[in-house]
Amino acid sequence: MADFLSYTGTVGIQVIILFLMIGVGFIISKKGFLTSDGAAQMTNLLLYIVTPCVIISSFESMEFNKKSAGELLIAAGCAVATHVIGFLLGFIIFRKAEKKDKVLLICGGTLSNCGFMGIPMAQALVGDHGVFLASVYIAVFNLFVWTVGYMMFTGGKLNLKKAIINPGVIGILIGLVIFFGNINLPYPISSAVKFFSDVNSPLAMVVIGFHLATVPLKLEKGDGKMFISIALRLIVVPLICLAVFRGCGLRGELLEACIIPAAAPSAAIVMMFAAKFDGNTKLASKGMSLSHILSIIAMPLTLTICRLFI
């Protein structure tokens, strides 16, 4: 019981730490210290430099053996299953929603902020082993974003090139070469990669805080479906995945590392796609923002339940 309460406190503290950093982004946005151009540049830095470095650093820290290779494959399978479950539930629950909103509700309930929120949480709770296992989720996430997600927003078009060639997947591919080849990067390169990976959490949280500060969160009539989508993302999908993965025999850090990114709030890419493809940006922005705020309660709850079964 003491260990259980200690874990719950640890998760809660980590979420509070992340939201304190989000608060910094919120404040500097309100004060005008960070503009939309600056936030966009920080996002590019995160996507193209920092996130791949996080992935590469986590793969370099792991020693290749039969067990770790098997865990990597299992984590990839769990990531695919998580997205399939999310999309299937979304299509069923929101089948009668207006066409323009349906895409946002389904994608918002399925696609998680696995890089910006999932990786820092995995690092805090499971360490480098957790980041190693959770990193593969980013590659699977990108595949679903640029195939299923892209097709839904564009009405049938497929961007296979971006599904394969993007920072997350490239980082995974480099990491896999390092991992399976038992390659030790030269110290200067390894150190530089590690330094970049260390700024992932604060930089990502500041960007999220900036976006929270720019979105009006006043509740309006018709927001009920949005809250169902948020509940799908924060509670329903991760708990169903927990039951399925545990039923398949997963335990310990492997199970925990698979659930952490699955329990993260809605992905910012949903809001970006809404803006790019003439979607309901107000609904997308509000949904993403409230999802992050409510994750203060939901993530500790979900991960604590997960802890009971590992």
Task: Characterise the protein shown here.
By secondary structure, the chain is mostly helical. The chain is built from 14 helices and no strands. Helix 2 runs antiparallel to helix 10 (200-213), helix 5 (114-126) runs antiparallel to helix 12 and helix 12 (252-262) runs antiparallel to helix 14. The longest helix has 29 residues, at 2-30. The protein is globular and about 55 Å long.
Structural key phrases:
310 residues; mainly alpha
Oligomer: single chain
Low-confidence stretches: none
Beta content: under 5%
Mean pLDDT: 86
Q: Shape, please?
A: globular
Number of DSSP E strands = 0
Helix coverage percent of residues?
Answer: over 70%
Give a short synopsis of this structure.
The chain has 310 residues and is mainly α. The protein is built from 14 helices and no strands. Helix 1 runs antiparallel to helix 5 (114-126), helix 3 runs parallel beside helix 6 and helix 4 runs parallel beside helix 11.
